[in-house]
């Protein structure tokens, strides 16, 4: 969520790469030697998708996760995502009207966490987020609507359910 967005949450501006902390967390989780991971992307679905996934894989290698990037034809990528057959994938969202409700409802709603063909491939579910989304829908003013969504986005990012990489700007 860009800084000019009404739901931008200042508390979560940046995910700073902290290699030593990452290595320590892996060791505490029982993965002192790291592990292997495949990061999937759809082939030419997003602008620079292959380069983005390759860069993420390289950053993960720095903390001991042997990550490899793998591109799939878009229909296969989407089918595997729907079937929850991806360990990690590059996903994005475009809302025609730029309403910030659409992406968070699609990616972070408990109601969509276990539905087949849902875009909540991570099965992320936080009842507090759902409560904030409900309050946003019921808000009496635009200010309250955006305040509820801002809080919901803060929870999702704070939980690291999804890691924001960038926001593509189309011209």
Keywords:
171 residues, alpha/beta, three-stranded parallel β-sheet, 6 helices, 11% strand
Any overview of this molecule?
- This protein has 171 residues and is of the alpha/beta class.
- It has helices at residues 19-28, 49-61, 74-82, 101-108, 127-138, 142-158, and strands at 35-42, 65-72, 88-89.
- The chain has a three-stranded parallel beta sheet with strand order 2-1-3.
- β1 (35-42), α2 and β2 form a beta-alpha-beta unit.
- The longest helix is centred in the C-terminal third of the chain and has 17 residues, at 142-158.
User: H/E series, N to C?
Assistant: HEHEHEHHH
Rg (CA only): 17 Å
Residue share in β-strands: 5-15%
Ends distance:
18 Å
Task: Name the strands of the widest sheet in spatial order.
Answer: 2-1-3
Largest sheet: 3 strands, parallel
Q: Which segments are poorly predicted (pLDDT under 50) over 5 or more consecutive residues?
A: none
Percent helix: 40-55%
Number of DSSP strand runs: 3
Mean pLDDT level:
85
Strands, helices and their partners?
Elements: H1 19-28, E1 35-42, H2 49-61, E2 65-72, H3 74-82, E3 88-89, H4 101-108, H5 127-138, H6 142-158
Parallel strand pairs: 1-2, 1-3
């Amino acid at each position: 969520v860009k800084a000019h967005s009404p739901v931008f949450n200042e508390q979560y501006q940046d995910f700073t790469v902290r290699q030593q902390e990452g290595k320590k967390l892996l060791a505490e989780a029982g993965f002192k030697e790291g592990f292997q991971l495949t990061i999937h992307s759809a082939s030419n679905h997003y602008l620079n998708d292959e380069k983005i996934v390759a860069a993420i894989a390289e950053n993960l290698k720095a903390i001991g996760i042997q990550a490899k990037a793998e591109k799939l034809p878009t229909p296969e990528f989407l089918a595997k995502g729907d079937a929850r057959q991806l360990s990690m994938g590059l996903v994005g969202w475009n809302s025609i009207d730029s309403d910030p409700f659409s992406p968070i409802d699609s990616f972070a709603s408990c109601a969509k966490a276990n539905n087949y063909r849902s875009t909540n491939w991570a099965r992320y579910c936080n009842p507090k987020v759902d409560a904030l989304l409900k309050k946003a829908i019921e808000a009496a003013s635009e200010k309250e609507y955006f305040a509820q969504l801002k809080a919901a986005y803060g929870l999702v990012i704070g939980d690291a359910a999804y890691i924001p990489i960038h926001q593509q700007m189309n011209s």
